[in-house]
Specification:
Blueprint (H helix, E strand, L loop, with lengths): L1 H34 L8 E7 L5 E4 L6 E4 L6 E7 L8 E7 L13 E4 L5 E10 L8 E7 L7 H58 L2 H10 L3 E16 L10 H21 L2 E7 L2 E6 L8 H24 L7 E17 L3 E6 L1 H12 L5 E4 H7 L3 E11 L3 E11 L14 H26 L9 H18 L3 H13 L11 H12 L7 H13 L9 H7 L1
Parallel strand pairs: 3-8, 12-14
Antiparallel strand pairs: 1-2, 1-4, 4-6, 5-7, 7-8, 9-11, 9-12, 10-11, 12-13, 14-16, 15-16
Length: 553
């Protein structure tokens, strides 16, 4: 038993010694192999290169060279061999410089496939080893050619054709527009000729069949027109006490006062560019935003209503001294669309109708005495200027319930006193800026229609540019809203003289401004400042203050 154990241990020791010798010999062989790397005649070369069409694009060379690859066939296969007769124990390693980041693993495959190589320059490197030797690295250069559509020439041609296409499209649109315009002009001319012929024929018939006086009346009726206005503010004012006049001892004097009251109302509405429609007994009807459309009619009608109230209060105070209280007023206001018929005879008359008129009448009849009662529509348009208080709802047929408000005065920041009954300069400046929008539309339309067509600099575009620039410079210089309004107005009129003459157009522009601006609520002081700014633009410019310097800039 002891002998058996001894033999077993001896065998184990001999096995470990033998294993160590084998590992040592292996390391020596590897060392010998590595040391033979630089002095080896064990060579490797590229045998063939095949592209994606199975075409051989390179064959049989062991020299460094360059191979060109068409971009369309940029999937290529490298076949490589060694000079050894037996390659069964040879391992290969490769790397494509410019594409691979590191060498491949050692493997027996003697080919390498690269799919869809981008255009560019590459260096294919290969080496081989067997049990004894490692070959030197063989390098083979290839160039994947740049496709035509990536070249500068292709880019230039592409941009050229795009530009050519744009020019063709523009020319085609111009041609189509000119053709369409020509057809429209021809159609308008034909229709005009036909209408003129029919008009002449009709007038000849009228002259033959009717007396001269009747013919003139009939022609005058042709001028009557019905038109729809989208935003008109209707005011109904009901004067209470009218039915009691007959009961008063001084009824004749009261009737005279009522006449004076209506005459005063006419002056008030005219002052605020509001149109009187009619009076019927104790009811006075007027409308803003007609016949000339504007954005300010809700505010201007309310201003007229304030003055009506003030005048009624003066009359009430007059009779209160005699212990006679007869006068009161109830005002209803609503804003909305109306239809209007304007008759141009010796005196212009306007008739209006529609739901807006009906609602304004209902607001008046349902409102409070001595208050300016307004609808929700009007409230939305004037709430930034006046203090409004909710009054209640009123049912309207086909409309449902509408909200009602009454006006308690001007907003504190827009009033000169604590009672908020009188507007300050800031109020009129804000109203002026709103009126300016209507003025600008009026003048720009006038320029477009009446300016000479041969004006290439002082044209409509130039005026718009000057308006924009004075506003930008004015804001930068910190001018007030009041000054900015005057600046923009002067810019709007500075070339208006060209409507009449090339010479002294600044003086003519001042004259035109003096004629038009009062209709848009400008005071004489404002008009003078505007005129001075226009005159300051005369060559050579001679500005005297900051506003004149801004418009000259």
């Amino acid at each position: 038993m002891l002998n058996y154990s001894f033999l077993k241990n001896l065998i184990i020791i001999l096995f470990f010694v033998f294993s160590s010798n084998i590992k040592s010999n292996t390391r020596n062989i590897d060392s010998d192999t590595d040391s033979s790397f630089n002095n080896s005649n064990f060579n490797i070369f590229v045998e063939t290169i095949v592209d994606s069409k199975d075409s051989i694009i390179y064959k049989n060379s062991n020299k460094d060279t360059i191979c060109h690859v068409n971009f369309k066939n940029n999937t290529i296969i490298f076949h490589y061999e060694t000079e050894a007769n037996d390659n069964s124990n040879v391992l290969f390693q490769n790397k494509l410089m410019g594409y691979d980041n590191k060498w491949s693993n050692w493997e027996k495959l003697n080919y390498k496939i690269y799919h869809n190589l981008p255009n560019g320059n590459y260096s294919f490197q290969i080496r081989a080893k067997n049990k004894k030797k490692i070959s030197q690295t063989t390098k083979f250069n290839i160039i994947v050619q740049t496709p035509f559509y990536y070249t500068k020439t292709a880019l230039f041609l592409f941009l050229f054709f795009i530009l050519l296409l744009i020019i063709v499209i523009i020319k085609w649109k111009d041609y189509s527009f000119a053709k369409e315009k020509s057809l429209l002009i021809k159609e308008i001319e034909d229709n005009t000729k036909e209408l003129v012929a029919q008009k002449e024929k009709y007038e000849d018939l009228i002259s033959k069949e009717l007396s001269k006086e009747d013919a003139l009346k009939l022609k005058a009726s042709f001028k009557e027109r019905s038109k729809r206005y989208n935003m008109v503010t209707i005011l109904f004012a009901n004067i209470t006490g009218f039915n009691k006049l007959a009961e008063q001892r001084n009824s004749n004097a009261l009737i005279d006062d009522l006449d004076k009251l209506y005459i005063q109302f006419d002056k008030i509405v005219k002052k605020y560019n509001v149109e009187k429609i009619k009076t019927a007994g104790d009811t006075y009807l007027c409308a803003g935003g007609i016949p000339e459309k504007n954005k300010t009619n809700p505010i201007e009608v309310i201003l007229a209503a304030f003055e009506m109230q003030e005048y009624i209060n003066q009359i009430k105070n007059k009779y209160a001294e005699k212990n006679e209280t007869i006068w009161d007023i109830k005002i209803g206001v609503h804003t909305g669309p109306v239809f209007a018929e304007i008759k141009q005879n010796k005196k212009r008359t306007i008739d209006i109708w529609g739901d807006t008129v009906t609602i304004a009448s209902r607001i008046n009849s349902s409102g409070e005495f001595n208050k300016i009662n307004i609808s929700a529509n009007t409230y939305e348009l004037i709430k930034d200027y006046f203090i409004c208080k909710y009054f209640g709802k009123m049912p309207i047929k086909y409309e449902g319930d509408i909200d009602m408000f009454y006006i308690d005065g001007f907003r504190p920041q827009l009033s000169v006193d604590k009672k908020s009954l009188n507007p300050n300069d800031e109020f009129y400046t804000k109203l002026g800026l709103l009126r300016y929008d209507d003025l600008e539309n009026y003048m720009l339309n006038k320029f477009e229609d009446e300016l000479p067509k041969d004006l290439y600099y002082h044209n409509l575009k130039h005026t718009i540019d000057v308006i924009v620039q004075v506003e930008l410079i004015g804001n930068k210089e910190g001018v007030s809203e009041k000054e900015l309004l005057l600046l923009k107005t002067a810019a709007l009129f500075h070339d208006s003289g060209f409507l009449k003459s090339y010479t002294d157009h600044e003086l003519i522009g001042i004259q035109i401004a003096n004629e038009i601006l009062p209709r848009f609520g400008y005071s004489q002081d404002q008009i003078k400042i505007i005129g001075d700014m226009i005159f300051a633009t005369r060559i050579p410019p001679k500005p005297k203050n900051k506003l004149e310097k801004i418009i000259c800039d």
